[in-house]
Every structure is written in C-alpha cells, then in structure tokens.
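Dear colleague,

As promised, here are the two records you asked about, laid out in our usual form so they can be pasted straight into your sheet.

NAME FIELD: protein one
SEQUENCE, THEN STRUCTURE:
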Amino acid sequence: MDHIGIDLGGSKIEIAAFDAAGAQLLRRRVATPAGDYGATLETIRALVAGAERERGARCTVGVAMPGAFSLATGLVKNANSTWLNGRALREDLESRLDRELRFDNDANCFALSEAVDGAARGAGVVFGVILGTGVGAGIVVDGRVLAGANAIAGEWGHNPLPVPGDEDRPLPGCYCGREGCIETYLSGTALAADHGRATGDHLDAARIAERAAANDAGCEATLRRYESRLARSLAGVVNVLDPDVVVLGGGLSKLARLYERVPALWKAHIFSDEVRTRLLPPAHGDSGGVRGAAWLWARA
C-alpha cells in the first residue's frame, strides 16, 4: 500500500505519496488558507482525493502538523498557525477523509525523515530543527520520535534566548504570551524584522543573504546577529541533550554559511573541551515534513 504524507505548514500545505520502499510517487504543494480552519480542512481533503485518484488506490495518510494535541482535551495546542489551536483537528480530518490518520508535530516528522534515511542516517540521537515561519524541533532517539511526558519534547522555540545582550533587547513579544522566546529571534519573519529595526530596510531572508554576500555591511551585521543567537540557542540544546547530529530544516536552512559559522560560535557556550555534534543541512530539502508524515505509517 502507498503512504501519503501531508505537511500542514503556516504558508503551504504539501502532499506526497511514497511506496513501501520510500520512492516518491507524486508531490503537490498549495498555499495554506491561513486563518480559515474550514478551508484548511477542505484543502487537505481535496489534495488527498486528487492523490488517490492519480494513484488509483486508497492510501494511508499521515499528517505533520504545527503544535501538538493537548493531553487534557485532545485539541490542538501550541501551534504557531494559531487558527488551529483549540480545534479537534484529528476528529475533523478523520471524518472528512473517512479513515484513521496518524499525526505528529511537523518538526518531529522532519527529524524522523532525516534520521531514517536523510542527513542523520545511522545517528543515535538527532535534533531536527525547523527554522521557518516558526521555530520548532523534533528529537529522534534510535529511530524513534521522542514525544515526552507532556507531548512537547523538542519545543525549544519557546525557551528564552540564552544570554541576551544589548543588541537582543528589548525582548520581542511572542504569540505564546511570553517575551524573548527563541522563535522571536530565529524565525524567518524574525530575521526580517530584526533587519528592519536595525537598518530601516524591509527585506526577506533570501535578499538579506544575497546582499551580505555582496558586502552589504548592514545585511552582514544582521546575519552575524542571527548566527550568534542560533549558536547560543543550540548550545543550550547540546548541553542538555548532547545529540550526535543537529539537522536544520525550513527556509533558513538554505543559508550555507550557518554550517560553518554556528559550530565555530557554539563552542564558547558548550560545556565540553571537544564538540563532536555535527550541524548539517537536510538531505531532503524542504520535503522532510511530508516524508516523515508518511513514515508515521511506513515505519510503524
């Protein structure tokens, strides 16, 4: 049986189908109807129906979602796509698709994909980071996703930024109600906002990187602030979890300079005389979430 993965992101919804050996059979991507819960459900239903028509068979479906299900209510919690919070996403989607579904956090799915047959293949402990619309992470230990007692394992984005300096203040407010969360510094929108505050120029992350490579001093300074914040934040993870591999995903994982600059910076904050943790780009690009969602069935 083919396995369908759905990646429900803040800006896009992606679907892909894979055979039992992991070969990709189809892939589609559409814009997320942000803010509209009903339209989000209908978009997913239509994508699955179209994929199954193309494959000519009913498939299993796994969903990579932002946030998690509350252990108390069963409703979505902690999603940066805030229109999903408080919703019975599992029940509503299973009703529309008329089948049992498997769900996991999008960062967990990304980490699982990279640990199974991606950049971290064979590693014992993997910390898979999403640097995109939001900031999240998943933890995979010996090929199994670590959920945690409160279903929040890997939610480093809502820890406070370590060792904030003058350039990190004032602490930005976060949608979660706190101030100074890692997400408010390391998401793509946070990077653009930081650059705007420092320079008055409103550029996205890709353009900032382009200009930094062309010796734009303001853009270079923005990326250096970002690298310092990322290094401090990941150093805290290494000190607690001590992973073999940290894999970056999301749009900002495409910044090639991060893989050299950040390990050089995080050494000052890691409690070890030698740091063997590797920081790697994803093997599967931005398809990690959708592949990991499919693996929720294929690797069961």
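NAME FIELD: protein two
SEQUENCE, THEN STRUCTURE:
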Amino acid sequence: MGNGKVALITGSSRGIGRGCAHSLAKAGYDVVIHHSKSQEAAEKTLAEVKAMGVKAILLQGDMGDVDVPQRLMDETLAQLGRLDVLVSNAGITRFERVTDLTPEITDMLYNIDFRGMILMARSASRYMVENKVKGNIIFNTSIRSFSPHPVDGVYGALKAGMNRIIKSFAVDLGRHGIRVNGFSPGVTNVRFPDPEEEAKNPFYRNAHRFIPLRRPGYAEDMGKAVAFLASDDASYITGQVICVDGGLSAVGVPENITSMLAMFDIKDWLAVDENSV
C-alpha cells in the first residue's frame, strides 16, 4: 500500500539508483525513475517498481544540462502532484591522472556530479519550502570523498565538496523541517551481483580482501540506507553523510591491489592466509 508520498531518484535506470527506487517503492513511495540515455534499462526498472503496487513514471534528461533539473521537477509535479524525497544520485565516474586531464573531462565531471546535483536540490527545496513539505534531500557522494586514491583527484574533490554542501544545505533548510543528508557508497557490485559471475570477475572476486566485512556492497545495501534516511526513524538526522561501505573507509586502504601499487612502491608480496588476519 502506498504512503501517499513521492520520491524522485535521478539516475535510477540501473545500479545504485535502481536499488534506491526498489527500496523506496517497498516503503510505499510513488517513484519517479529518471535516466539520461538508458531507455531500455529505465523501462525495465519502471515495470519492476509498478509491480510493487505503487505509481511510477519515467523521465529523461541529461543532468549536465542546466535546464533539466527544473524540468524534472515540473514534470514530477505535473504527473504525480507532489515531491517528498529527492535522491540526487545521477553521476558519472571518470578517473584520470592529473597529467591527462582536459577541460572537457573536468567540465563534464563538474556539470553532472556537482552542478547538476546542486540545481536539482535547488528545484526540489524551492517546492518544499513554498508548499511547506517537510521533505528529504539525499545525495549520493562516495567514500573517495574522505581520502585520496590514485587518478581520482577531480572526481574525489567534487564528492568531498558535496559532503560540505550537504551540511550547509541542512542548515539552510532545517527551519523548514527539510532534512538533507548523504550516503557514501564503497565498493558496490552493480554489474556482476550474481554470485557465480562475481566469483569470475577479476575485480569483485578479490575486493572482499580489502573490506572489513569481507564482501562488496550491492545496490540493495545502498537502497536500504536511503530508505532509512528518508524514514521517520531518521527524523532527527540531518547534515550527515553515512558511509555504506562495509568498513572500507574506517581502515582507509585502497580498494584493490592495483590502487595500492599505484600509491606505494611495493615490489614484494608475502603469501598470507586471508583467514589468519
């Protein structure tokens, strides 16, 4: 049964956004699925959400376009009548060495991962303030926002900036009863979640070795965290960024051996029984 509220999740055709759409639908929210170029995947997610017994619509737009955030807001209101939760999830990941950076790469990362999220929050918060909706704005950041990794200077810095913005936005909107929080995913297996496929993948079959909980995260882990932040159980939480990373940020190690070798001059490895540590 629906709860009478509406959630818009940007970048929700697949991956973490899809996991958030599923979790919020299970919590009774009518859901806005958004995509930029993944029409087929978005339609599949739309059907999955509708099968959960809630209303759902599909919107399209490039978050790097300055006009798209307000258009998404307008179309959400036109079709579903309100907005209670914004999950600003849409983003791109692009890693480059500083010597290889170009204006085009830096602009693309800024426009989508930073400016697009800010403008989407502006549109949502204006509606919430004007209509006295005590809503939620939730940003997807990254554990790379807390510590540096090789070749992630621009991406990581923008995510770190978003963590800081969350705090200021929470202060700005607190008097209106609007909560602003973030979640920072760690290693999240959204491409090969099937156990057999995960075991064959060169990255994910070894990722658990670097994570205290000894497993990667999955889209549903992120979705559950978002559903919690949007819920009344989190009604006194604002201005916070929750790491959903199996403890990876707690130990602060690189995500894999390739990253470790890029950071340190380690030439010799001792065979260590992973069960002994």
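A couple of things worth noting about protein two: The longest strand covers residues 179-185. Strands lie at 6-9, 30-35, 56-60, 85-88, 136-140, 179-185, 241-244.

Best,
R.
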